[in-house]
Amino acid sequence: MTLLVEDAVRTLFEELHRAPPPTVLDPQGRLDADLGFDSLARVELLERLQRALNVELPASALESIDTIDDLVTTVRRAQWAAGEISAHPSTLAAPAIATAPEPPAGAPVEAATLTDVLAWHARQHPQSLHAIVLGEAEPVMLTYGGLLEGAEAVASGLQLRGISAGATVALMLPTSVEYLHSFFGVLLAGGIPVPLYPPSHRSQLEEHVQRHAEILTNAGAEILLTFPEAQPVARRLRSRVHGLHQILSVAALMQRGPARGSEPVLSADSADSIALLQYTSGSTGSPKGVVLTHAHLLANIRAMGRAIGAGPHDVFVSWLPLYHDMGLIGAWLGSLYFGCRLILIPPTAFLARPVRWLQAIHEYRATLSAAPNFGYELAARRVEDEELKSLDLSSLRVTFNGAEPVSPETLKRFQQRLAHCGLRPQAMTPVYGLAEAGVGLTFPAAGRTPVVDHVDRALLARSREAREVTVTASETVSYVSCGRPLAGYKVRVVNEEGSEVAERVEGNLQFTGPSATSGYYRNTAATASLLCGEWRNTGDRGYLAGGELYVTGRAKDIIIRRGQHIYPEGIERAIGEIEGVRRGCVAALGTQEAESGTERLIILAETRETDPARRRELEQRITERVNAVIGEPADEVVLVEPHSVLKTSSGKLRRAATRQAFLEGSLGHGARRPALGLLRLEMESAVRAGRPLLDGALRVAFGLYCCAVLVIFAVPVIVLTTLLRGPGEAWRLNHGAARWMLRFLRIPMTVSWEIPPDKGAPHVIVANHASYSDGIVIAAALAEPHRFVAKAELARTPMLGHHLRQLRTVFIERFTAQQSVVEVGRVRDALSGGDSVIVFPEGTFTATTGLRPFHLGAFQAAVAAGVPVIPLALSGTRSLLHGGRWLPRRTQLRVTLGAPLAAREGEEPFAAAVRLRDAAHADILRHCGEPDLAS
Description:
The protein is an alpha/beta fold. The protein has 5 domains: 2-84, Non-ribosomal Peptide Synthetase Peptidyl Carrier Protein, Chain A, CATH 1.10.1200; 114-443, 3-Layer(aba) Sandwich (Rossmann fold); 452-557, Roll (Luciferase, domain 3); 563-671, GMP Synthetase, Chain A, domain 3; 699-928, Glycerol-3-phosphate (1)-acyltransferase. It contains 30 helices and 34 strands. A hairpin with a 2-residue loop joins β21 (535-545) and β22 (548-554). α8 (205-219) crosses α9. It is elongated. The relative contact order is 0.06. The model is unreliable at 84-100 and 257-261 (pLDDT under 50).
């Protein structure tokens, strides 16, 4: 057995590297780092062993096998299982479901939320089969009632652990029943699901942690639901993401929930509540969280279903990941809404053996399916003729091709390869969509074959005109029609100035429709670039012909060289066909050249070639191929080692990140040994874990230092204030001492007046109250004497009460209903005497951030005395020293004084006080940087 495995390894090594294999293979040698077998090479190795030994290896082998010893062990276990069960154990055998009740005709058309949809199905037909999840063991069947019951258990567990309303909960789970339960469990508990892709291999762990930390931080996730095997990743994420309080497995969450029979307090979601944060794959930059409400999702699902006539008669087979919008919304939630039976295959099972997808379509008589273009390409190339002989795919009426550029060659190759299996050409359905629209945007007419448009390549590059030509040649480029906009949606093409262009003129794609997102979560800059009035920028380019959409590429990826528009996809596909270049691992990039003022065309191509002569030959062949495709050579061809060209979780090229890595000189560092990456992550996690302790110690030290400085300043100031006779001198002494104290503590403060008041004219300053330090900061900001209005309890405080009396503070028993007239009169008397006063109209402060409602007393006193009100906004004092904390923290302070507000002539006093209160509140709210708690 060992010899046979080693022979297969040697043969594949020789084919991959065109070099003699090692004479002696280290059983503990790593397939990736030591032998250079990437994921696709490992897939090929597993398939060869399965055919040679007549066994079926588990889908998890692709992730679990790292060494030759691992491979031998896995093969032996598979042989033993085959001897016990059968010669060809099938993980896709269809269970006996013929007797399962069918969903009734119709759909929950009145549903306003996703939870309404689930409740409708669970009420109408709880025992009907909703989904079958295939995996290593027996298929798991899930009814509508079972989905609701599991979701309620998850919701109860989350609520038991204190999930707050509107909290974001990350789901880092593989395709499983637990995922389905968790998604709806979060919604039922009042949270917002944030799907994440789970780690697929240890060699990708470092980048996985880095990218997910960015997503979790942006989402503000409080809880992460994951599976036990992902705990090492989850632990490292927790050390990097502030606010991620709990990391839970779904099993533990459900087991430790409330007693059986109890139900969660269901959320009161509305159609406009956020139902999902769908993070984009980040193919052209950092991932962004698309905000999708229940109304968005249901509008898009209904429009897609109407376009294809979806209903309970349909069966949808999907291997698409549930963290991806096409798999989550298009396959699962769409099937749930229309009552289709859903067959879920783990993505790893498809990647390990693409024939499993086709087997499931055959065995379950699927009518619907979907995949990105690479899925069809992988199936067309990897499935053996012998495996296709017994397949019948005639039941398939629609199979979507979307989520990435659709290749005419792939469509043709897949259809021709599977035509004898009954696959009808009309089933092939190229579509276009994006997360910002939910998932679907344009569909072709039902029941037609794909339409391919051949256009003049040079004319498109020069003038952006997509002129149709009848003969395909190297001077032409071909694009696939993605159909017309769904009902209720519109698509247009605009030029760089934002003006709509004519048909067959290529430009930037925009759309509008009932599921158009409102923007990106907590990302103002990205949202601003997305919105264009009622239209949304897609970031893609294309043209319309006959009302149908043809997508030409990503706007950020197009290279403009000497006025010519160069589209990278066609170049990358052509170079990928060259022997020695890793298919799908080529990036055509544009870099700005200052000398010429145009872009340079850089080709990055992964190869395993190490021989200098062969590498030079390969570079020459790439140069010739580029010249044949675009009519001119590239400026630079760079051969890089495997895993250098960066990709997203769904396999899309990350050209922007690859370009940045190339310019920084860090390209090619991604193929490091997993052990080094793990060690680096462990060290970073340890540093991050220790940093809060160090930060805490530094904060305590600074707080104690502040207290010491306060005492040093306070004692002489209190003594000198007592000795000074005039209130003006006492105020100026305290003003100077407060300013020097802030300088001594190195706490910066800026003070700005919108309109300074008349010097010596009495007025009322009303300020937000956020901290114990507010009085000191205001004293430091105002050079002219004022009198504070303070609660009477402070007058009875030792030392502080004496000091405030020396400053002629007006003490009041707060603005209660019983004391209002008296207290207003005391403030009015101070104003009538020519003094200016400072009032905190909120009456008190708490640790909770936000501007509270204002009491009317200060404004009534100002109206009665005929003096203006000046709003004063404090920013930063709550961070300096908020309620419940006695040790200050270093921060930046800002004091903003607005324009004076006065009663109008002839205005009724109470109405004037109310108007002044509201105007002052609005002015302070604009500058204090805190939310409005008054509303």
